[in-house]
Amino acid sequence: MESNILPGKPFPLGPTWDGNGVNFTLYSENATAVELCLFDSENDQHETAKISVTEKTNFIWHIYIEGIAPGQLYGFRVHGPYEPENGHRFNPNKLLIDPYAKAISGSIKWNDALYSYKVGDEAQDLSFSDSDSAPFIPKSVVIDQHFDWEGDTSPSYQYYNTVIYEAHVKGFTQLNPEIPENLRGTYAGIAHPASIKYLQDLGITAIELMPVHQFISDRHLKENGLSNYWGYNTIGFFAPDSRYSGSGTKGEQVTEFKTMVKELHKAGIQVILDVVYNHTAEGNQLGPTLSFKGIDNASYYRLTDDKRYYNDYTGTGNTLNAYLPNVLRLMMDSLRYWITEMHVDGFRFDLAATLARELHEVNRLGAFFDIIHQDPVISQVKLIAEPWDVGEGGYQVGKFPPGWAEWNGKYRDCIRDYWSGSENTLPEFADRVTGSADLYKDYRRPTASINFITAHDGFTLNDLVSYNEKHNEANGEGNKDGESHNRSWNCGAEGPTDDPDIISLRQRQKRNLLTTLFLSQGVPMLVAGDEISRTQQGNNNAYCQDNEISWINWESADHELLEFTRKLISLRNSHSVFSRKEWFKGVAVNESNIEDIAWFLPDGTQMEESHWQQNYAKSVAIYLNGNGIHGVGSDGKQVVDDTFYLVFNAHDLGLDYKLPHETYGRQWKVVLDTSTSDTAPDRIYKPQETVHVEGRSVVLLKDDTIRQNQGDDE
Fold it and tell me: Which parts of the sequence belong to the Glycosyl hydrolase family 13 catalytic domain (predicted)?
């Protein structure tokens, strides 16, 4: 092969096929030698060729080999000091995954050979293993990046008209009888017409996929018959996970993923990826050596003063060092790749506060955010932060930079507290449903708030109203894992019940929570299956349950709740008053002397400051002026809408609400009442008439008689 070997180039990083051969590169500052290993199949026990990489430019090792084509399997062996006490863990006996691999074939086969030290040795990671890990580790794959996108463009949804649907590739499709069995659990299953029609009918504008970067299932889980189902354990930041491919694993997974994105875009649905750049699957000092550890441990991870150990802000054993230029480059290259080559529309960053840590403190102007803000590609897509990590000072809700939206954990907690009957919740409830100005108004808009009641982590909506306690026994950790303070309420019985009154109350509570979510200012996020009463049997930490606990059971779908949710989303998508781009001002609109928003008591008078301080208060009416939206549409005209009167009642008893004076509205029609599953109540009221609002319910009334003909909704 020597006649086919050329020096190659240091850029672009990763393998690049040009039609004649492949350029390979690898960044390692402290390595003394690098070997490229080629394999004929996933099952090869040893490489068929081992080639020394001798060229190095600015710590980037590079080589070009003629005659190599897409589908070629490869890995690296990297030489250097094995000095864990100094942060170095080089061991050429370990085959390593290329950090820039665009595809990875196969899954890990757990074996002691995957560790750089002798497992069981008294010296632990200070010992040295000479076992070859090649038979047990997935292989990197050279791909052909060509794909016919057919002129694909991203659907043009801004945050204010976005409805996010958080879904798991496998969980959403695995049990869907309308999808061919061979496509269930795959990217192709998401792209199937049955999946797309369901999302369109529901009114979804963006699907947020739980991690699809190639990830590892932890050894202890596999040995206990479980797996890392959620996927927050990345090892390949450029590679779509091969387990979700129905077409093959030697690059076919890349084509299948691209096809999925193209089909979703054709249907008007954006694709957001949940990404995990805060840590890798290699764990702490006792974890395996799969890639970064063996390539250059000290150049990728945050190490403590004693460099044998890792700073762990993620609870997973390690933290990638976003303070280092080569790590930042890896992250930015990965993000750009998924935008430019895979056409995704945005990212949700897991434990994003970790990425803001310069040394130990969280700094919202950290290098990671500076670079993204300046990047002409990354800065233009949706950027959503999970604004916390497990380190000190890691809860950073409301503190991310302009251009970022955030999972609003305070919204989740407050809305749960309000509907479970907690006291002293009304003032914060008002903040949350109007966009959380207390968190975001300084330099962002209401759309900075990603509102959610539930997420993949925690109870499903059905379980939130059915369980007071978590039931995670199936996870094998003695029910000690998962959140213990869930702000849930079982409505009178723990788990499934035949009591018709409890069942009725639970259904009402689900409607209340969904109604609050979709009629709040901000960006709503719905978890896949909540709209059909999906249950995890009380498991609030189903990260390791790749089975019926986590998969959506379409056969038992709650069609009544589904229809209610469709109406809710349609209502939101049809009315700009529920999806404002600008903050409420609380002042009179034009010459009307009517505010853009007003708050009312049951007797029809406006609330005063003292009313907010009554700790027993659990009900409120909100007047939303359709002529006070304070924004213009794409046509440059003022956005106007119908005017609504929204009554929330979290008391267990019903209340009579007197409608306000006719200056606020001359005829009110009930368009939604959560006390019933009837999605078209169709009741008419005059000004100052009394509307009875049942206990624990929401009533929404509309008056379109005072709408000014100044323009159309956006």
Answer: 166-572
* 622/664 Cα distance (integer angstroms): 12
Per-residue CA distances from 326 to 62, 100, 237, 566 (Å): 16, 12, 14, 46
Q: What angle do CA 669, 672, 678 make, to 5 degrees?
A: 115
**5-142 has CATH 2.60.40.10 classification:** yes
Residues in CB range of 11: below 8 A, 6 or more apart? 25, 60
Positions in the chain whose pLDDT score sits under 50: 1-2, 708-714
Q: Which helix (H) or strand (E) holds 344?
A: none
Q: In the annotation, is 350 catalytic?
A: yes
**Span 447-506, pLDDT tens digits:** 999 999 999 999 999 999 999 999 999 999 999 999 999 999 999 999 999 999 999 999
Neighbours of 600 (CB within 10 A): 20
Angstrom distance (rounded) from CA 508 to CA 499 = 14
Where does 587-680 have alpha helices with state H?
Answer: 609-612
Nearest partner of 458 among 413, 503, 391, judged by Cα = 413
- Of 47, 98, 218, 350, which is the active-site residue? 350
- pTM score: 0.97
The residue from 166, 263, 296, 386 that is catalytic is 386
Residues 6/9/15/16 CA torsion (nearest 10 deg): -90
* CA atoms 191, 194, 197, 199: torsion sign: negative
Instruction: Examine the residue annotation and report whether 386 is marked as an active-site residue of this protein.
Output: yes
- CATH for 582-703 is 2.60.40.1180
Determine the angle formed by the axes of helices 500-519 and 409-419, rounding to 10 degrees.
140
Token pair listed for 605? 């008078």
pLDDT for the residue numbered 363 = 73
What whole-number distance in Å separates Cα of residue 277 and Cα of residue 330? 10
Residue 307 CB-density burial (10 A; 0-12 exposed, 13-18 middle, 19+ buried): middle
The set of residues, in sequence order, having a beta carbon less than 8 Å from that of 313 and lying 6+ positions away, is 278, 302, 319, 351, 353, 354, 357, 389, 390, 391, 394
In CATH terms, 161-577 corresponds, of 3.20.20.80, 3.40.50.2000, 3.90.76.10, 3.30.450.20, to 3.20.20.80
Vertex 402, ends 584 and 311: CA angle to 5°? 130
Domain boundaries, the chain: 5-142, 161-577, 582-703
